[in-house]
C-alpha cells in the first residue's frame, strides 16, 4: 500500500525539509498549514485551521494519510495558553482523522524545552537538567505545552491503535521565512547588518554558552530521523533526541561564522548583549539592504527571530543531547555543524534572503 504522509506545519523549517525528504523517497505528501507552502514541487497543499474542527473535517475529507508528522505550534502569552492552544491543535487533527482508520503512525516534533522548561521558566534555576540530556530524564514538575502535545498523541494512539514517535531536536538549523524560532537565519541577518553598518560581529550570549559544549540539529537530519522512526518497527512508541552528531563550542564556531561573512568576531566580554536589543532599530537598515541587493524579503522580522536566538545563546549552562538511543537502533546520519550553517547561508543567498556577496559594502 502506498505511503501517504500528512505534514502538519509544512511551511516551517522542519516541515518544509521533511516534505522534501518524503517526496524524494516517493511518498504521496500533503502539507497542511493555514497558508500552505506552494513552493515545494509535488507537495499537495492543504489549507486548514488546526483550532477549527469544522475546518479540519472539510480539509481532510478526501485525504487518508497513513503517516502523520506534526511539526506545528503556536506561541501564546502564557504557558497555560500554550498548553490549551497547542494541545487542542493536536487533538483536533487526530480527532478529525480518527474515523478514517487510515493512520498507522504519528510523529510529533517537540524539542529540548522538554528538559529545559517552557518559555515562562526557560533554563532557570530549579529547572536545569543534567547534561547531556537523555530521553529517560523525567518530566519537570512544571507546566509545559510539549507535555500536553505528547499526552494528546498518547491518548489518540490508545484509542485508534496507531504507533507513535516523539522527536526532540536541539536548535534546528534550516531555511524558513517568517518562522518564530530560526537561529541560523537570525545570525545570517545579523551578520549582514554588521557588514552594512561596519559593526563587529559581537557574541550576544552568556559565558556558559560561549565556553561550554553545545550541539544543534540540521533540519535535513531531523527530516531523515522522522522518516526513519516512522518506518522502523524498533523505533515505534519511543521518544528520541536528535542532533547532528558532533559537538562544538561557540567560542570556536563564532569565528567560523564571522570569517564566512568577512567580519571581525568579538567574543564574550563579561556582559550579555542580547540580539533583540542590538538589532531593535535595524528594520529601516534592512529595508535599505533589501532594496540595494534586490532581496526577496524586506521585513527583518520575517528573516530574524532574535528573541529565540537570545534564549538559546543566553542559557546559563552548556547544553548537548545524547543520541545513543537512536544510534543503537540503527540511525547513523551525521552532519558537521559548521557546514549546516554554511549550507544555509548559501541557500539564503541563492533565494535572495541575504545578499549574494559575502562582503556587503558598508555605508
TrEMBL record:
CDD domains registered for this protein in UniProt: 5beta-POR_like_SDR_a
Pfam family, one: PRISE
SUPFAM superfamilies: NAD(P)-binding Rossmann-fold domains
Domain PRISE-like Rossmann-fold: 55-355
PANTHER family associated with the record: 3-OXO-DELTA(4,5)-STEROID 5-BETA-REDUCTASE (PTHR32487:SF0)
Name of protein: Nucleoside-diphosphate-sugar epimerase
Source organism per UniProt: Spirosoma utsteinense
Source taxonomy: Bacteria, Pseudomonadati, Bacteroidota, Cytophagia, Cytophagales
Amino acid at each position: 500500500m502506498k505511503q501517504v504522509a500528512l505534514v502538519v506545519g509544512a511551511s516551517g523549517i522542519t516541515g518544509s525539509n521533511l516534505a522534501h525528504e518524503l517526496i524524494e523517497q516517493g511518498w504521496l505528501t500533503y502539507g497542511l498549514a493555514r497558508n500552505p507552502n506552494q513552493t515545494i514541487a509535488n507537495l499537495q497543499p492543504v489549507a486548514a485551521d488546526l483550532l477549527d474542527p469544522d475546518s479540519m473535517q472539510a480539509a481532510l475529507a478526501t485525504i487518508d494519510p497513513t503517516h502523520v508528522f506534526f511539526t506545528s505550534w503556536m506561541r501564546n502569552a502564557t504557558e497555560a495558553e500554550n498548553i490549551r492552544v497547542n494541545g487542542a491543535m493536536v487533538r483536533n487533527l487526530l480527532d478529525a482523522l480518527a474515523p478514517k482508520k487510515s493512520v498507522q503512525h504519528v510523529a510529533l516534533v517537540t524539542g529540548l524545552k522538554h528538559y529545559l522548561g517552557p518559555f515562562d521558566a526557560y533554563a532557570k534555576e530549579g529547572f536545569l537538567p543534567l547534561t547531556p540530556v537523555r530521553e529517560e530524564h523525567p518530566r519537570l514538575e512544571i507546566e509545559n505545552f510539549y507535555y500536553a502535545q505528547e499526552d494528546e498523541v498518547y491518548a489518540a494512539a490508545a484509542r485508534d491503535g496507531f504507533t507513535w514517535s516523539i522527536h526532540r531536536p536541539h536548535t534546528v538549523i534550516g531555511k524558513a521565512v517568517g518562522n518564530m524560532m530560526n537561529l541560523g537565519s537570525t545570525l545570517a541577518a545579523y551578520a549582514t547588518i554588521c557588514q552594512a553598518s561596519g559593526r563587529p560581529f559581537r557574541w550576544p550570549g552568556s559565558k556558559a554558552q560561549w565556553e561550554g559544549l553545545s550541539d544543534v540539529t540540521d533540519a535535513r537530519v531531523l527530516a531523515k530521523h522522522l522518516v526513519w522512526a516512522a518506518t522502523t518497527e524498533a523505533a515505534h512508541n519511543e521518544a528520541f533526541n536528535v542532533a547532528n552528531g558532533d559537538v562544538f563550542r561557540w567560542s570556536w564556531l563564532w569565528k567560523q561564522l564571522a570569517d564566512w561573512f568577512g567580519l571581525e568576531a568579538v567574543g564574550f566580554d563579561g556582559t550579555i548583549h542580547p540580539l533583540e536589543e542590538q538589532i531593535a532599530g535595524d528594520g529601516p537598515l534592512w529595508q535599505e539592504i533589501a532594496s540595494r541587493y534586490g532581496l526577496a524579503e524586506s521585513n527583518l522580522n520575517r528573516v530574524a527571530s532574535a528573541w529565540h536566538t537570545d534564549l538559546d545563546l543566553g542559557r546559563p549552562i552548556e547544553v548537548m543531547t545524547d543520541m545513543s538511543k537512536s544510534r543503537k537502533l540503527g540511525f547513523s546520519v551525521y552532519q558537521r555543524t559548521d557546514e549546516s550553517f554554511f549550507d544555509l547561508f548559501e541557500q539564503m543567498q541563492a533565494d535572495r534572503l541575504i545578499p549574494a556577496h559575502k562582503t556587503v559594502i558598508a555605508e
